[in-house]
Amino acid sequence: MRMPGGGHLGTRIYTDLSLTASDNGVALATDLAISVTGLTRRFGARVAVQSLDLRVPAGTVYGFLGPNGSGKTTAIRCILGLLRADAGQISIFGESDPVRRLDGVGAIIETPRFYSWLSGRANLEICEAYLPEHRHGQVNEALERVGLASRGDDKVSGYSLGMQQRLGIARALLGRPRLLVLDEPTNGLDPQGMRDVRELIRRLAQEGLTVFISSHLLSEIQAVADTVGIVLKGRRVAEGRVSELLRASAGESGAVEIELGGPDLDAIRRAATGLDGVSVLPETDPSRVIVRSERLPASELNRALVTQGVALDALSVRAASLESLFLSLTESEEVQ
Amino acid sequence: MATTNPIGGVFWRMVAAELRKLLSRASGLVMLGISVLLPILVFALAKAVESGGATVSANGQPVSSLLTLEGPKLLGYMLTARNFFVLPLFLVMVSAQLVAEERATFTLRALLALPNARWRVLLAKYTALLCLASLSIAGSLGVGGPLCFVFVEGPAEMAAWQGVAMGWVASLASDAGLIALTLLVSTFSSSVAGVLVGVILGLMADLAIRGLLKIAGMLQLFPTDQLAALMPGRALAAWEGYADGWDPWAFVGLAALTIGCLALATLRFEREDVL
């Protein structure tokens, strides 16, 4: 794995996605489940997606991250042919024809909707009728995989939100797809439901399916994704393996994030800002100050703050997370 | 791949799936129920009038003296009752449900994210609606035909039966035009009510234009008869020719209306952004 440009390219981070068999380090088109190049989509004067490039390696779980309104759903709809792109190329497993590329793709786009007066099984059968003939005969299996086999003959109007979400996943699994596109698949699920979906995604990935999952729940993505792409304001700002991105985010020096607590958080912020190689990260918890230390280990940081007369009652080193990477990218983008 | 045969096995499965949706909804079932009940109602009413049980009069004359109860005539009344307002309204409603309502409830999104050209999806919906219209006509004719043939006395020449039978066939052609018009309006609106209002306003405008054409004809400004026959409202009533004499221009208008509306609806549907 190489880091072009040493990891950081300004605020943008890219890692080489040649994750499949390509000796020369350049991913072949056939190695990619999804390839998006220069995708642009405008709504009137507003640019929702701008020159977006994505490379989703086949057989991986790819997390597609971005804040609300960053263009994730627009990009997904363009990939699925629901929205027309103003510019750019999209191919799925090397196929760029807007209809043929969807053969072998299962999708959930936001909250899945159904014909509420029909049973879950009937809904799946109707959808299956629209699939090519060689992809028929999967309704029972799909219901079983999401744990709805016993409720399959009940009307969807009697399903809870979580059951509808699972039925949506069953619908996406019809026809044994090679690629699953899941836009916020854990919406409306309770913690148990979220865990079930996470485990299902892991199982599917083990079976060789490519899963493209969009979510704003960064911890969820970190738990399942091998690779992530982060978009802000319609543009990709980072893409690569999760581990590589976190390493790149920490930098060569091995920067750490440290959570600080004390009676006077403003004083902690002021003192930390004045320390060499220490930066204060955007606030996510009003009772804590999170700093990023490039050089000082936690013990040295503690000593330096106490020396300045700042009282601390909590100090903990945080594991590198997508959340911190995401927040630092968001902050950099806002500053720009 | 399914797209190699545009109207192969998968296409008919799509049609069956759409028909299943239609026949599992109250609106579709009520439409078929009315189609069956309407001829019975017309038959009962006609029999009541004939037997003098009804004292309804029109222009000072008892209706019974105006009514000729022959089999083909009664079947014609049944056809008129079937095509007067209620069932066409249901047809517009169920057509709007398959496109406009599915767009509003986001169920269309799941279908359009599957590997099918959009024109096939629209054609499958259109074909399913035509099947429903055929079932409606078959229901009316299946009940009304035997009632008229078996229980109505009086002379009836074979030509009269053939004429009214052609009226029922032409009625399916009119339904095909109405469905196409509704699908076109459905590409502009995301609510069944919006589509209903759109179609009704459109046909009212058509009626007004035909009125103006008639005035222009009376003033001999330009030849207006053929133009009026080509107007959608007149074209959709082409089935009336079984009683008034067939107007080939009305069928030309009906064909143009059906093909034109389907083509425009497909163009719009193909280019539509699905949210």
Structural description of this entry:
The complex is a heterodimer of chains A (336) and B (275). Chain A has ten helices and 15 strands. Chain A has 336 residues and is of the alpha/beta class. Chain A folds into two domains: 4-104 and 178-247, P-loop containing nucleotide triphosphate hydrolases (Rossmann fold, 3-Layer(aba) Sandwich), CATH 3.40.50; 253-335, 2-Layer Sandwich (Alpha-Beta Plaits). In chain A, helix 3 packs across helix 4. The longest helix of chain A is centred in the middle third of the chain and has 16 residues, at 191-206. Chain A starts with 7 loop residues before the first strand and ends with a helix. Chain B has 275 residues and is an all-alpha fold. Chain B has one domain (9-271). Chain B has 13 helices and two strands, in the order H-H-E-E-H-H-H-H-H-H-H-H-H-H-H. In chain B, strands 1-2 form a two-stranded antiparallel ribbon. The radius of gyration of chain B is 21 Å and the shape is globular. The chains are: A alpha/beta (336), B mainly alpha (275). Chain A binds chain B through residues 77, 80-84, 99-103, 105, 107, 109-115, 117-118, 122, 125-127, 129-133, 171, and chain B through 1-3, 9-10, 13-14, 16-17, 20-21, 24-25, 105-107, 109-117, 121, 271, 273-275.
